[in-house]
Amino acid sequence: MPKNYQHILALAFAVQEINENPQLLPNVTLGFHIYDSYFSPKWTYHATMLLISTPERFVPNYKCDCLNNLIAVIGGLDPEISLNVATVLDIYKIPQLIYGSAPVMNYKTPGLSFYQMAPKEALQYKGILSLLLHFEWTWIGVLTMDTDNGERFVQTVLPVFSRRGICFAFIEKIFKASYITQVMGVLNQGAKIHDKVMKSKANVVVVYGESYSVAFLRWLPYLSELEHLTLKGIVWIGTTQIELTSFVYQRTWGTDMFDGTISFRIHSNDLLGFHLFVRNRNPSSSKDDGFIWDFWQQAFGCVFPNADLGKVEGDICTGEEKLDHLPATFFEMSMTGHSYIIYNAVYALAHALHDLSCSLKHRAMVMEGRLGLQKQQFWELHHNLRSVSFNNSAGDKVSFDQNLELVAGFDIINWIVSSNQSVNAVKVGRMDPLVPPDQAFTINEDSIIWHSWFNQTRPISVCSESCHPGTSKKIKEGEPFCCYDCISCPEGKISSVKDMNDCDKCTDENYPNKNRDFCIPKDISFLSYEEPLGISLASSSLFLFLITAVVLGIFMRHHNTPIVKANNRNLTYGLLASLLLCFLCTLLFIGHPEKVTCLLRQTAFGIIFSVAVSCVLAKTITVVLAFIATKPGSKMRKCVGKSLANTTVISCSLIQAGICAVWMATSPSFPDVDLYSTVGEIVLECNEGSVTLFYCVLGYMGLLAIASFIVAFIARKLPDCFNEAKFITFSMLVFCSVWLSFVPTYVSSKGKGMVLVEIFSILASSAMLLGCIFFPKCYIIMLRPELNNREQLMRRKP
């Protein structure tokens, strides 16, 4: 390939500098031979055998020329070339410095190590992975050469990519061919590869190949069966071996498909004098250059006149053509990465040889330069090569690590194809092994020019669009993990970043927002005196307390009137007193739950209400027994009196007090925090301890209320003009209705809603008792005093 001619120039330039340097290898002249492998193992072996034979006579393992001493071989642009050369050089312990990828060593005889002038491939793989992750390209295609190195890349490198979240739309092996005839035999395979690339959703393709890979890839658009489709742009990512090269017959082929390509190139610097050295090369001034005539004709598309050829068709080469006018696919004026390491390889050998010559113990052996060195065993050069370390003319340090790999980095290059098909290689990043690993990869995204198909926006290469916060990924069955659907986070969970595999649960003190993309701290919730609802309930309780106190005051002021004496005056006072306490006990339910208030609120409520209902029950029993006792011959007269009423109230109240005592002794109420019942709130509440005993208290109170209602219902039609049993019947009907409704409402409520339901039930049932039983009496006492006499009280209806 014409572009590889620069490798030859780099070798010649380095040797010329060394021979002109009096400080390095004085009295020694370096020379070199260059052989072409033709991509063929046969020709590679042949060339290697020539190196260890007498010039002009192919007699392997026999040299009679003392003027040419083989000290090392620099070679192996492609790994298989290096491996083929090594199988021969291994016998003679001759060092080989390779400037391509290290070959797979499965079949290499152990004993000779390669001196790898290219940086570590592991560093390059990290760089490619960092590049993919930086641009969030998770759905990519992979093309590899059908070689041992390509297989090693697939087996060892791609699994690492997969573990970091990269998926592969396809992994294809591109054909390997040594000659054009072989290439033409695999065109169908190339067409299939091209069509797969264009039909795939992947906009990024990683190419791991050899030096001629791009030249083969340039065939693909011409093999496509997708003529009716608009071909998309591809971001090609090439490894160090990939160069934008062309075969001669591809001169007129476009390079648009590689516009925006990103490749990794061995780090290089401009060398002083190299540009001038290249510009001065021409066929007339380079008589000893056996390659320049072929290169010139191929690169410029012309022929040199030859007397033996007769008439020449086509342009005539003048030899005055300018190298800097050539496209980059054929030749670059600036030193490429491979040329740079060939230059460094020559200097590494020169320094090692210099160190070897300086270590001679007997200076007498160094008489004529070449004569002294030729008697040395050059396998000793290995020791000096391993420890060689120097700075080249560009200031870069050259040394090997313990694995005989050059300590160097990679440049990240962006290929920009202009409208006139010229190609510019712009450095946009670096992979530096001499800095901390987290700083090794650097990229200047603003300097990258993408393929025109992307309209200069950052290309996207994903199988599925990113799942936004508030959703999580659901892998599609039978497809790679990069292909997924996005589902909303379930209740109580959030996802705060994109592409989460699962939603996270908020802590107990937080809850998800509406979009479920972050957690919000919960509010502290309890029925307080500061909020309007707490103020309203507290005010209602105090108001009803005052009303009850006024009623009690009225009854005490008219203590001796018949209507007050009727139906046991002491029970009336007891009922009013218990109602006063009922209204006050609601205040225990308002405010921050404390240990004392939690202990008292339910037990106080249960006992006080039981006393109130017991008084009502005693009143109704008294009415019934009093009526029965007035019948002639009735034996119930002895039962009617204060003792029966007091016994009823005390016994019924003591039973409830006993239940409450057991409750407080075994499982009392305590302050608790409810984190889950109400969304967005941390509810401070009183835990009832034993729910069973709580409902026992309610059940016993309900039993008393039902008994009072039944007895009052029986006595409602007794012939008494002032029969309060009618009012008690209605009040107990409302009372029972309130508390029967309370149970399901209480159970279905959450947070402070439970407290509200209980307070409302207490106030409503107490107010009904007060209103239904005592307001009619107050009406007579205050507004109809003429009815408050014994005659009216004892008058019976006709």
Helices and strands in order, then pairings?
Elements: H1 5-19, H2 41-51, E1 73-74, H3 79-92, E2 96-98, E3 114-116, H4 121-134, E4 139-145, H5 148-163, E5 167-174, H6 180-184, H7 187-199, E6 204-208, H8 213-217, H9 220-223, E7 235-238, E8 262-266, H10 274-279, H11 292-300, H12 337-358, H13 370-374, H14 381-386, E9 389-391, E10 397-399, E11 410-417, E12 423-431, E13 441-443, E14 471-475, E15 484-488, E16 493-494, E17 504-505, E18 510-512, E19 519-521, E20 523-525, H15 532-557, H16 562-565, H17 569-585, H18 595-629, H19 642-666, E21 670-674, E22 681-687, H20 691-715, H21 725-748, H22 752-783, H23 790-794
Parallel strand pairs: 1-2, 2-3, 4-5, 4-6, 6-7, 7-8, 20-22
Antiparallel strand pairs: 8-11, 9-10, 11-12, 12-13, 14-15, 16-17, 18-19, 21-22
